[in-house]
Structure formats: structure tokens, C-alpha cells
Amino acid sequence: MISWRKHYKKTLIAIGLLLSTSASIYGQDGDPKNGEKLFKANCTACHALDKQVIGPPLKGVVERVKTEGGVDKDWLHKWIKDNKALRASGDKYANEIFEKYNKTEMQVFPNLTDKDIDDILAYTTNPPAPEPEKTAETTPGGETAAAPADKSTTNIVIISLLAIAGLLVWILIKLRQLVKLGQSEDLAGLNETRVRSFSEIYQKYHYVGKAALGILAILAAYGVWNWIMWIGVYKGYKPEQPIYFSHKIHAGENKIDCQLCHSSAKYGKVSEIPSMNVCMNCHRTISEYNGKYLEPGKDKAFYDGEIQKIYAATGWDPAKQQYTGKTQPVEWTRIHNMPDFVYFNHSQHVVAGEQAIINSFNKKNPNNKIDVVCKACHGKIDTMNVVQMANDFTMGWCIECHRTTEVDMNNGYNKEYFKNLHDKLKKQYPKDGGKITVDAIGGLECGKCHY
């Protein structure tokens, strides 16, 4: 009995050791799939698997630090959690890496558990293969599902060509009959009664002719006037730019605020074209496009190529992670260009008129509401791959807006500086319940917009 109990205890101890060893091995190896998620959430701002970004490539980093510095995974745990503390402790290899990569501070990750770090390292050691893309289904004959549509299109083309050929044969037959008719005696009698000149026709129908000429003159004058009035109106104009920039990806998919790039729109007269350095605030670490959205006809390689154009323009060497000093100015094609004799101030509309303009636009367009004041003039720019001129931008278009947009009395700017004026206007325009539109505060005065 005692012997059995001894063996029983040994068996329990053996099982416990086996389970603990298995757990230790699992924790040591980590989960590459979970590591991929953690890597993308915490590391991709500065690292990639197969190339240098701000920091070095991390594929095979466990083996690399072991070969280069003679350190193990425990060292990597310390480095990832608090590399500053590790360097401060005098660790030789930690300080060598810091010097090697231009003394660029790495973010600390005290929130990551040992299991999280093991998963990340497992991902860098053995990244899971990407899931294969879905391909078109094939028929038993080996053709894709689109083949029947292709065949039907071919049949339509053949039938159309046959119809055109039949029509041409019919026309040739009719022409042959006309030629024979011209050679007959019956046509000679008709020629004797035919009017032989335009003057004879005009004499016979001169009243109709004069009326027709009058109508043509009126239509010609209207056409000339209409053409003159639309000179300089380029609604729908969307030129190609030297570097392709999709507002749908940046402002739409990634929700980047307009004023992050066009910062002077709020406090300046002109909304400037952002410098390439603004682009590099993000694209220094974003060297390739990994978004889900792809514009029809464009692939990932296209977007990656456009990012490389940014690097060429700014003189950025992504391999060395430094500027070369060799820049290439980008010649953007301007889309919105106000005439020299027109004064327009962006800040006046964005600061003082922001909510008033949004409310007015949404009231007039209940099925096409906007949430940003920029869209009132420039359209829903967050849906545009190529920016285009969304409105007429004529004088009449501006005046109509001033006549229908109510001044926001609760706006802090207006309330502070024009309180007395607003009180006076409420008494002056009582018919609409004190409603004051922009034209009431000088929005139609010539000198407001013209020098």
C-alpha cells in the first residue's frame, strides 16, 4: 500500500512537471497569429519585418541579437518593456544599438505582458503565411465564370456587324434604283417644274425666311452672351497632379482633418497647398500602402510608387532613414484660383461663419448634409479620389449664399465684436423674427469683395 502511494505521488509529480514544461515551451514559443495583431498595433509605426523604417527590420530578430550581442529573449523582453532603463544600466549591446540607429528613442511598452512579447517575437521568427486571395470560380471546362458573359458580348458584336452589312447592301440597292430613275424620261418632266435658284425660293417664302433669320439672330446673340457669361467657370475641372493624392483615402478612409494639412484656412486669407514636409510627418514611417481600399484600376504597387515620389521630392532616403539634401520641387496644378479683383478670406468663413454656413447648407440640402464647413464650397472632398471644382464660384453663386445664410448670433467671435450691431439689426429686420442674413451686415456691398 505504501509502495503504491509512493508511485502515485511520483506519477503526479511527473505529470505536473510535464504540464509545466509544456506551458513553459508554449509561452516561450508564443502564438504568431496573436503576435501579428500585436505587431501591427504597436510596432509598425517604426518597424517592418523585411526592411528598415525608422528602426531595423525585425524578421529573425531573436537569432540576430543572439549572434550580434550574445543576448537571449530575456534581454529582448527588457529592451521592449523599457529600453531607456536598460541603456541607463550600462548594458553594452543596448547602447550600441542606440548609437547605431542615430540615437533615435524607441517607445517603451510597459503595458505588454511577457506573453504578448513572446507572441510578437514568435511572429518575427516565423510569420504566418498570408491567406490566399479568392480567385474566380472555374467551370468544369476550365473557363472562369465570366466566360459566358464574354461569349454573349462576342455574339452581340457579330450580330451588330451583320446588321450594319445588311444596311449597307440595302443603301447600295436604293442608290442603284435612283441612278436608273435619273436616266428615265419621267425625271425630265419633273426638272422643268423644279425651282432652279435660292432667290426664287426666297421670293416665294420671304416672310418665312425673314422670321427664320430673326430667330437665328436671337439664338446666336443668346449663345454669344451665354458663352461670355461662363468664361472662367470651370465646375467639374479635375486636372491630373504630378503626385497622385486621394482625398478619399486620407480624409475619408483615415478620417484626417482638413486643417491638419490646410492649416492656414482657419486663420489666414488663403488655404495654402501643404508643403511636402507636412506629407513626411506621416510618410516618414508609412513607406507603403496597406489600406483595404483600392480605387478601381489601381493596385498597391501604384500607391507605393506615388509614396516614392514624395521621398524623391523631399530628398528622403528610406534605407538610411535620413535626408540627402537633394530635393525636387513639385509643380502642382492649381484648381481653385480666385481672380485678382476678388477678395475672399477663408478665416472669415471658417471662424465667424462656420456653423451658420453648415446650418444653411443642410437646410437647403436635407438629403445631402455636411459636417465640415469646407464641404459647402468644395463639395464632399472626402469622397473624391481626384479633387475637382465642385461649384460654379460665380458672383451670383456667392450672392445667393449671402442672401440665404443666417448670421450665427451665438458665435463667440460675432457675439464679442458685433453685439451692438446685432441688437440694432434685430430691430431693423423684425419681419423674420429677428433673422439676420449675411446681406444685412454688408454681404452685398461691392467693396466687401472688390478692391
TrEMBL record:
SUPFAM superfamilies: Cytochrome c (SSF46626), Multiheme cytochromes (SSF48695). One of its GO terms (molecular function) is metal ion binding. Residues 1-25 form the signal peptide. Residues 124-148 are annotated as: Disordered. The chain crosses the membrane at residues 156-173, 211-233. Residues 137-148 have a biased composition (Low complexity). Keywords: Heme, Iron, Membrane, Metal-binding, Signal, Transmembrane, Transmembrane helix. Residues 30-128 form the Cytochrome c domain. The keyword Ion transport does not apply. It comes from the Bacteria. PANTHER family: CYTOCHROME C7-LIKE DOMAIN-CONTAINING PROTEIN, LIPOPROTEIN CYTOCHROME C. This is Quinol:cytochrome C oxidoreductase.
